[in-house]
Amino acid sequence: MAEESLLVPTDVYLKAGIHIGTKFRTKYMEQFIYKTRPDGLSVLNLQKIDERIRTAASMLSQYAPEDIIIASRRENGWKPISMLSSLTGIRVFAGRYPPGALTNPNLDIFTEGKIVLVTDSWPDRNVVNDAMKIGLPVIALCDTNNQANNIDLVVPANNKGKKSLGLFFWLIAREYMKNRGMIKSDEEFKATLDDFTAE
Fold first, then answer.
1. Which of 14, 55, 105, 185 has its CA 20 to 30 A from that of 35?
2. 128: domain CATH number?
3. Which of 157, 182, 190, 197 has its CA nearest to residue 56?
4. Backbone angles phi, psi at 54, to 5 degrees
5. Burial of 191 by CB count in 10 Å (0-12 exposed, 13-18 middle, 19+ buried)?
6. Structural domain tally of the chain?
7. At 71, which helix (H) or strand (E)?
8. How many CB atoms within 10 Å of residue 35?
9. Per residue in 163-195, pLDDT tens?
10. 128 with 116: CB under 8 angstroms?
11. What is the C-alpha separation between 10 and 47, in angstroms, rounded?
């Protein structure tokens, strides 16, 4: 696998464990699984992870920050999405997403968006369901045990680990800012992986 074709060197991906799945695999996620380890854990294909992160970043880059909504019910996603928000202005729900925030104009917290990204389609199902009701595209990080119903773009990844989520949102922030012209190059992106990784 050519190093220069990846968003980060292979060892950065491996260190973050972004490719380590669960022991359980759904039919849908089999296409992203590279192999099963002797301990029974499924290993995701790095090339496919990289391709999908790129696709996710380019999809998001077509939208202004205020039109994007990112939700993470999972605690390991709170710091990375808050950091991404502070750099890009993208709106995030760290913790519980209040059902109806996208669909009920009578709520104080009503907000409009054009695209949604979630760290896990199961704990974040409220936002996925709301997005589906109003026809917003949904990007979701999916581990080997996720179903992909109602997801427009599946990004295969370990969506539970701190380092994995940190790396994913660090890459999304960097690529989004480059694609939107907020920074000119990778070198201009000053935030570190640690800034994105939960304690």
1. 55
2. 3.40.50.10490
3. 157
4. -60, -45
5. middle
6. 1
7. strand 68-72
8. 9
9. 999 999 999 999 999 999 999 999 999 999 999
10. yes
11. 9
Which secondary-structure segment (H or E) carries 53?
A: helix 46-60
Angle between helices 162-179 and 78-88 (to 10 degrees): 10
Instruction: Give residue 71's pLDDT.
Output: 98
Residue-wise burial string across 136-171, b where 16 or more C-beta atoms lie within 10 A, e elsewhere:
bbbbbbbbbbbebeebebbbbbbbbbbbbbbbbbbb
- Comparing CA positions, the residue from 177, 121, 113 lying closest to residue 154 is 121
Cα separation, 22 vs 127, whole angstroms: 24
* pLDDT tens, residue order, the chain (199 aa): 455 689 999 999 999 999 999 999 999 999 999 999 999 999 999 999 999 999 999 999 999 999 999 999 999 999 999 999 999 999 999 999 999 999 999 999 999 999 999 999 999 999 999 999 999 999 999 999 999 889 999 999 999 999 999 999 999 999 999 999 999 999 999 999 999 999 8
The span from the CA of 107 to the CA of 100, in Å, is 8
Q: In Å, how far are 85, 106, 140, 167 from 55, measured between CA atoms?
A: 19, 34, 12, 16
Sequence-ordered list of residues with C-beta below 8 angstroms from that of 106, at least 6 positions apart, any chain? none
15 exposure class (CB count in 10 Å sphere: 0-12, 13-18, 19+): middle
